[in-house]
Amino acid sequence: MLPRRDLYPGYDVLAKRDSPSWNAKTRAVLDERLAIGPETRRFFDESEWPTMKAIADRIVPQPADRANLVPVAALVDHKLATDTRDGYRNPDLPEEREAWRRGLKALDAEARARFGARFHELGAWAQDALLKLAEAGELTDAAWAGMPSKLFFKQRVLADVVEAYYAHPTAWNEIGWGGPASPRGYVRMAFDRRDPWEAAEAKPGREDEAHAENLLVGR
């Protein structure tokens, strides 16, 4: 496997914490997210938790050399524990918490039926195969209790897991995003232009230059 390329070397979005880029509300929201550890859970039970973590690892696999992993499963758990809803729901899906409980139970049932083990006990290939079948709507075990596996995959698994990943500062560093810039805002909106408080992307052969610029982003 080729080594992961750092597109924004030296960039740490948390360096903006006390700069004009962020207001008190942004800081409070980020502090709450950063307090959630990888094993923090209040909603999922002991049986559901390993399945949830395995799903998160397949949907948004993270680099093995990353020092601070995004606690994706724990962030999904936090959303469900606080009953933070989307404000809309497909009529063919139950409410979010029930959808997750039913979906995790069903994925384990499908895993046992096809591979003789629970979902989290399977290898990556088998896990991916089941998720692809769910995406195609081809999982129909009785444990789904009428909930379409296709909708569960697209509107709960993808939506909640990807949202959790990109809500975390570690992911922001990865994509060079500066978070909600309030009150400072963004000024240079034209193509291929950036404000001095935005991350500098490392062009091939100019990594050191980008690193030096990114060390100054929070100032």
TrEMBL record:
Superkingdom field: Bacteria
Segments of this protein annotated with the region Disordered: 198-219
Pfam families linked to this entry? Gluconate_2-dh3
Q: Where is the composition biased (Basic and acidic residues)?
A: 198-212
Protein name, UniProt field: Gluconate 2-dehydrogenase subunit 3 family protein
> What is the native source organism of this protein?
Methylobacterium tardum
